[in-house]
What does this fold into?
Amino acid sequence: MSKAVSSAGVSNSGIGASVKRREDVRFITGQGSYVSDVEMQRQTYAVFIRSPHARARILEIDASAALAMPGVLAVLSGAEMAADGIADLPCGWAVVSKDDSPMKVAPHPTMAVDSVNYVGEPLGVVIAESLQIARDAAEQVLVDYEELDAVISLAGAISAEQIYPEIPNNLCYEWALGDEAETNAAFESADHISQLDLSNNRLIPNAMEPRAAVAEFDATNDSYTIYTTSQNPHLERLVLSAFVQLAPEHKLRIIAPDVGGGFGSKIFVYPEETAAAWASKKVSRPVKWTCDRAESFLSDAHGRDHLTRVELALDKQGLFLGLRVKTTANLGAYLSLFASAVPTYLYGTLLAGQYKTPAIYVEVQGVYTNTTPVDAYRGAGRPEATYVVERIVETAARELGIDPAELRRRNFIQPSDFPYETPVALVYDTGNYGASLDKALELARYDSFAERKAEAQSRGKLRGLGFSCYIEACGLAPSQLAMQLGAGVGLFESGEVRVNPTGNVTVFTGSHSHGQGHETTFAQVVSDRLGIDLDSVEIVHGDTGRVEYGLGTYGSRSIAVGGSALVLATDKIISKCKVIVAHLLDSEADLIDFEDGTFTLRDSNQSMDFAEVAAAAYFPATFPEDLEPGLTATAFYDPDNFTFPAGTHICELEIDPDTGVIEIIQFVAVDDFGKVINPMIVEGQVHGGLAQGIGQALLEEAVYDEYGQLQTGSFMDYCMPRADDVPNFVVDTTVTPCTHNPLGVKGCGEAGAIGSPPAVINAVTDAIGIKNISMPATSEKVWRACQQSKSSSGGAV
Amino acid sequence: MKISVTVNGVDEELEITPNALLADVIRDQLYLSGTHIGCDTSQCGACTVHLNGMAVKACTVLAAQVDGQAVTTIEGIGSPADLHPMQAAFKEHHALQCGFCTPGMIMRGIDLVNNSEVLDEAAIREGLEGNICRCTGYHNIVKAMFNAALEMAPGKTTEQEVV
Ligand code: FES
Ligand code: FES
It folds into this structure.
């Protein structure tokens, strides 16, 4: 474990210190306030009526029996909702196909109107006096369906029956990036070509807090207050007003209080909170809805689900000449909010990895199936890209008989190459990939791996080691470029620093914390910049009624974009303070220096501390006309570029060939996140990401049967990583500061989930001595692979 | 039906429906919202409370079953000014992120320390089989529980410290 956590060198509570989290006290004492803890007077309860079929026409909804039950206030349908002017749920990123045609958008009514297209799709909602009554009544609503053939298999979706009349081949888009001719030429001149067919297994995010909403309509001013489990309340407000037409933006207040994990699944605007809000107006009472876990499995946007063929062309020395990738990505039945961007701009652009591959070409077919919508899940596109690159690189190394670390090193983009423009549209600003590889090799004791493998063999066990040298792009930016590429929103962040008259500070951020610990890290940034006590800084987030604006938290953007906005706001505060001090000391602002919370008139012994200046700002006894009282500042920060965290993950594991059981012996992650604000929190983020990545590699998979019924619809069937499935992690960092944001930070939330799956699978295939095994590499699959490998190699394993 | 139950040391007379789950009564009738509901199949452990000093999943217990017994929830073990050693260890070792699994984890952790013969890393990991955390990767939860055990029951822990 990194020594940074216990580092005594960083003495204060500022940037770089492992400050204990201030939000913890309420969580460890049971005083957190999650959405389902919100209780409103006269609240009613919502239960949704969901489709039991993967594809069907809705012929009739008969709610008479339900409506006759005592305590039932209303049974509302998708048709009524549409008739009331509630529009479709939008997709926020317009992807253009390689033939320049726009993507084909399947109409997505908030609740189904004429037809349903996945099991679990809501088509109506019961509102009742109690949850029990609402549940009982929902069972009494009779829906007459005409079942239709459903399209379930991703591999067969393009040639299957058409789901939507206006969308041939169920193809949303056929997107491409890179130079096809140049890439083909590279393959023609290659000395060696490696090829793999890969699947990236479909995952279910499963934040431990199920989604929930409590909504209240205020008829006195036509406004709504909606408590909801959102990672980005302002974005939710924007979508509900501008697209869904629920109410004008200034009549909507969205509060996302304590939110119990998101991992992407709480970015999106869902039918349920929208319907709960609309229903609260219909019944003139607050409406509360809490998702059951069974409903979460069916209705939270799923993640990943790709089929890919990848080919890598190399020369004799093992230098990469070209990479060719063809992917089919499952979008589910409808386009969720950012679904279209995940397998395109967040995937294809990352295929250069850490390497100087001169020619890359990627084609992606985004297809509809009668399954739950698929959208961003921790990493969103980047884990899929990393899996493709790091699996094929490892495969090539084995085929060429070159040490996998050495092959990677030969192809690394070197520190002197930055800024480096990849053939897939990104410009990496900085990095040092050799440094993290070296550190990881040392921590993993790579030198002596062969001995450990031999020792394991003497015990009848198969030991394997796998690498992954990943790169990711965080803090999607800048707005101008993203919007040219089809993004429907800007990608900046806002921050406001309000200095109170007594010198303490209330900070409002557009970022949202649902486990990331912003109340601590953001306070560290502000207290460090202003030279005031950590305890004098309060962080406010997650409420459109209090925070000016924000785009929220996803894509590991909070510290890089939200943190930078706060730096700009503190800069404005300091500038204003200097003007005030100059006035009070009868001098000029550019003669005032600021350090450690004290303003000093240069070359004098006259100074004022921060609290004195704050007081002066609000008690402006002598201010001239052109000096405004007060001390607050807002800043919007729009980054120049993405940030590019990168690192090396090494997994060492042991397989019992008689049972297929895998034990992870050691997992080393060395990440370059640029500057780190709070090492303790960063390590925690890495741990969590690693567990999710190991879960993807070994345990988790969403499985549908041929009729579109989810077979893995509970924690009994969907294997979440438990404490004894994962090891203690060895986590360390290297540092190349980001060159274009004021904190030099890059973001750390997703790296663990991005880097780890290929490291694990490379280790599994190394141990068994096979080319490929699909994720999740369950004990059964591993056992079969061991048997097969034993028989094909004459029992040599 | 009526039950009388001691919750966090306070005697309560409650009117419940016969099919009410303890978890729902704790949350919706006693307004103790620290006990969380994370699943509907008794897998996640977010609802873990103590029944007569033993950890149980409150979603698997009927409220009618606890008549005449003693229930302790996360609100009953410590306060911000006077944290239980397990609570303090969770903060000290960054054993929580979103906090949703945390009350259940803490209640399970106390039970593990109190009701295990020995407690090393493997025993803690095995003891957490019924508690899911999606955020932390368990590393720091294991570390916190081990360190809390050192304080609560030094004899039960093995020498080697969990890093
Ligand atoms: S809510 Fe009780 S175990 Fe999940
Ligand atoms: S801290 Fe979020 S689920 Fe455990």
